[in-house]
Design a protein that fits this description.
CATH class of the largest domain: Mainly Alpha
Number of strands: 3
Order of helices and strands: HHHHHHHHHHHHHHEHHEEHHH
Number of domains: 2
Shape: elongated
CATH topology of the largest domain: ABC transporter involved in vitamin B12 uptake, BtuC
Oligomer: single chain
Length: 434
């Protein structure tokens, strides 16, 4: 890799990392649009700085963008606190107003001699990471260090502000000052990232890492670390793809859509890489991912169907217990809203697990199945009795509620219900038979 590639790689990785850490707080506070607000509110600041200075001055234009970005965030905070306007509406109003002002000022600059090319506004709107130099990386590193120091020093305050701001206010904490400190730090990082990824894509750099990390953990500390990693890694991948390094490793360009190699911009590739991580997390995160949730829902449905089969077999066999008479499939269908093939499939499945024994007519409970069914019926009837005696629900209305909840009752809850008067280890009489 060339020296320029290393410079861009370090700069984009640092920017993605600190943007991910700070963006996590915006995601947790349901202020994901704040990143978009900051990016768009920075545009009039860039234009005003150019008009005041009369030339393209990097530090001056970033300072102007920071001021208007911070003003936009402050306006949203004040409007939300002092008027009846909801926060999402305030975000939309301020964002569109500031961006409209930026477009007007941009048109004024375009009409001047030299126009927007002299101002370099395109690089701030769309980003130009490939033009990053060593001074830019040092500036990003300094801003990242300062922002990280703020997060470390105010971690406890930002934590309570993200999860329970009402409690913080009742404890006398200066929530408005803390809110502005967090948003100000976020604005500084946003403005710093404008030359690399631009106004349009900086919001994604702030939102995607935090939203992705939320799928993998429920603790704030690990989430911040993971957000930093998920911001840095896409920065690295996007830079390597854009610089052609990956093509050199593979021997072909994976982004070439034809006989010639492509030369795609770094900023969009970074955002697309972050979006790919987000999509992977949406699908495959162990607890919150779609696949895991579908698997858990399928397991719950299958467990519920199997336990309903055992309870139904027990109730039909109850008059002749301890004998285990065979129960015909038609009897099961009369009790449950199953189709014939579903009932036969459940019987076959339960027989594989050793819970029932198949007979020519249908099935009967095995010894182990009888014990499990007895526990299920006991939990069902204890819950029915609780609903009748404590919730004052009519006996003919409790069966469906108990049928839904019995599969989720823990052993401790069942024993607590039994301690209220039922004989230990005994199956209470059904309230429908009383």
């Amino acid at each position: 890799m060339t020296f320029l590639t290393w410079i861009v790689l370090i700069g984009t990785s640092l920017l993605g990392s600190i943007a991910g850490v700070l963006g996590t707080f915006a995601v947790l506070r349901r202020r994901a649009l704040v990143g978009d607000l900051l990016s768009h509110a920075a545009l009039p600041g860039l234009c005003l700085a150019f008009l005041v200075l009369g030339q393209r001055h990097f530090a001056g234009m970033l300072f102007g963008a920071f001021c208007t970005g911070l003003a936009g965030v402050g306006l949203v905070t004040l409007v939300g606190r002092w008027t009846r306007t909801k926060e999402d509406a305030a975000l939309g109003i301020v964002l569109s107003t500031f961006f409209g002002a930026g477009i007007v000022l941009s048109s004024v600059i375009q009409n001047q001699r030299g126009g927007g090319a002299k101002a370099g506004l395109e690089s701030y709107i769309y980003g130009q990471a490939a033009g990053m130099v060593l001074q830019d990386v040092l500036w990003i590193a300094a801003v990242s260090a300062a922002a990280l120091a703020v997060v470390v020093l105010l971690f406890k305050e930002f934590k309570i502000l993200s999860f329970d701001p009402a409690f913080a206010r009742t404890q006398g904490w200066p929530t408005l000052v803390l809110d502005l400190a967090l948003m100000g730090t976020l604005a500084l990082v946003t403005v710093t990232g404008l030359p690399a990824v631009g106004v349009v894509l900086m919001a994604a750099m702030l939102i995607l890492p935090g939203a992705t990390a939320r799928f993998w953990t429920e603790r704030l500390g690990p989430m911040l670390v993971l957000s930093g990693v998920l911001g840095a890694v896409p920065g690295t991948i996007g830079t390597l793809l854009s610089a052609g390094v990956v093509a050199g490793w593979l021997g072909f360009d994976p982004l070439a859509f034809g006989p010639t190699a492509t030369n795609l911009p770094t900023g969009p590739l970074i955002v697309l890489s972050a979006a790919a991580f987000f999509l992977f997390s949406v699908l495959f995160a162990p607890r919150r991912g779609a696949v895991a949730r579908l698997w858990a829902a399928g397991r719950l449905r299958s467990t519920t169907a199997r336990e309903n089969l055992l309870r139904t077999l027990y109730e039909l066999s109850e008059p002749r217990l301890p004998d285990r008479p065979p129960i015909a499939v038609d009897q099961l269908l009369a009790r449950r809203a199953w189709r014939a093939w579903e009932a036969r499939w459940l019987v076959r499945w339960a027989s594989w697990l050793g819970l029932v024994e198949r007979t020519p007519e249908g099935a009967r409970l095995s010894e182990s199945g009888l014990e499990k069914a007895r526990g299920l019926v006991r939990a069902h009837r204890l819950w029915e009795r609780f609903l009748i005696e404590r919730a004052d629900i009519a006996p003919d209305h409790v069966d469906r509620d108990a049928d839904l909840i019995e599969h989720l009752l823990s052993r401790e809850i069942v024993e607590a219900l039994a301690a209220q008067g039922a004989p230990r280890d005994a199956v209470p009489q059904s309230p429908h038979d009383i």
